[in-house]
Structures are given as structure tokens and as C-alpha cells.
């Protein structure tokens, strides 16, 4: 796949929803500039993601501070040791706010193993119940943990009315097929533009258009042609172009369906 994309950020008629980034990593000046530039690039809504007990309140503050920003609540597998009944109570309290649209980022990461795997599984096994109780979708992180991810999601597939998204999908086609079959969406980002990501492009090609959303995971995973620099929601148009090429679609056609998917998943009641 050619990575010779123009460096000027393309602008499309169809608005884009950023379904996964981390705005709390920015100071106020960077945040203001990022929001302004993202709006100029056609990004109409941004979801900033909670990952630890230390940023649960900050994410909620960010979501309340701008009409363009929404948030999530949850404990990432890297911070699974911090998950507790007390933290769950905070998640539930914050997630009752209308600016919170999902429970996440939750899941398993057996690549870095920053937390013991048994501890990761316990935290992941419990948090989807919060989504069930609050009628919210989940945002799932999974890396090199296909079997355990499948087993835990299977336990909740029938009770998660809003389902959710497997974000930054880099796992096997087999896990993709399972998740899609259970009604989850898959999130794709700048990895789709990387030279060595043919496995991800194969999953993109196999994903029904109605179950696909776009994200950046900013400030990580910056797409070509800006790889090596900090990522931001305003780079979403490059990701849209890459996914459209993989799907053999006009970019506007892709964006129209992806926008509908994102609205249905995060902003429209089940």
C-alpha cells in the first residue's frame, strides 16, 4: 500500500467523529489549539478516553468544558491493580453524567503485562457490568489476549444492549469475526497507514462498513505522512482516506456510514 499521501490535511464534506483519543495529555494551550484545528479539519465531535483512577475526573471535566467533547469512564488493563469497589463507585457516579458516552478503556494487554494477567482479567470481567447497568457501550482494549477477550465478551454479549467497540483493532481475523458476529464494532486508526500493518488492512477489508468506526488514539499512532509526530484528531482525514482505499470506496461514502455508525454507537439511545 502506498504511503505517498499529501501532507496537507484533506477536507471532506461529511463531518468526522473522533471516537478515541486522550485530550487530558494536553495542557490548556495545546488543547485549545487542537480543538480549533480539529474543527477546521471537519471533526465535529471528539471522545476523550479515561484509563486510570487518576484521570477519571479530568476526563469528565474535559467533556463538560467543551460542546465538542465527550468522555468515557473506565480502568485500562495497564492500571488494573487500581480497580476496586471504590473506583467502580466513582466510575458509576461520573458515568451518570450526560457527557459520558461509554465505559472504557477496559480490556486485556498481554503484550506489556504492566499488571498481572489474573488482575487484568478480574478488572475486565467486572467493568462491563457497569455498562450493562447504565445502558452504555464499552470501549475495549485487547492486545495478544484473543482467547480471554473472547471468553469475557461472550459472557456479556447478550446483556450489553449497546454493545461497543474493539478499539485500535490489531488482533486476529478470528477475533474480529467473533466480535463482529456478536454485534460489536471495530475501531481503526493510523496503523492502517503503516507499511507493516497488512494484517490490520486485511481485517479492515473484512469488516462490514456498518460496523466500522474511525479513531486516532492520539497522541499515539500518528498516521502517515505525519508518523513520528504527536497525533491529534485533525489527522483523522488521512485515516479516512486510507480506509476508503482499502474498502474500495469513495471517501465521502465511507464517512457518511462511519458517521452514522459512531452516532448510533455513542450518541443515540438503544
What is the SS-derived class?
alpha/beta
Number of domains: 1
For the biggest β-sheet, the strand order reads: 1-2-3-4-5-6-7-8
Helix content, binned percent:
40-55%
The percent range for strand residues is 15-25%
Distance between the termini: 38 Å
Order of helices and strands: EHEHEHEHEHEHEHEHH
Shape designation:
globular
The poorly predicted ranges are 1-5
The average pLDDT value, as a whole number, equals: 96
CATH fold name, please? TIM Barrel
Number of helices: 9
In the CATH hierarchy, what is the superfamily?
A: Metal-dependent hydrolases
Largest sheet: 8 strands, parallel
Give the name of the CATH architecture: Alpha-Beta Barrel
How many strand units?
Answer: 8
CATH class: Alpha Beta
Note down, in words, how this protein is organized.
It contains 9 helices and 8 strands. With 270 residues, the chain is α/β, with parallel strands linked by helices. The protein has one domain: Metal-dependent hydrolases (TIM Barrel, Alpha-Beta Barrel). An 8-stranded parallel β-sheet has the order 1-2-3-4-5-6-7-8. The protein is globular and about 45 Å long.
Give a short summary of the structure.
With 270 residues, the chain is an alpha/beta fold.
Keywords:
eight-stranded parallel beta sheet, 270 residues, TIM Barrel, disordered N terminus
Question: Layout of SSEs?
Answer:
Layout: E1 16-21, H1 28-40, E2 43-48, H2 56-65, E3 69-73, H3 85-95, E4 100-109, H4 117-134, E5 138-143, H5 146-156, E6 164-166, H6 173-181, E7 185-188, H7 198-206, E8 212-214, H8 236-247, H9 251-266
Parallel strand pairs: 1-2, 2-3, 3-4, 4-5, 5-6, 6-7, 7-8
